[in-house]
Amino acid sequence: MKLICKKCKEEAKKVIISRYEYQKSIVLEDVEAYECPKCHEFIFTEKQIENIEKKVEVIKFHKFSFERKLTISGRSLVINIPEDVVRHMNLAKGKTTKLTPLDDKHFIVEVE
Ligand SMILES: [Zn+2]
Question: 48 pLDDT exceeds 80?
Answer without folding.
Answer: yes
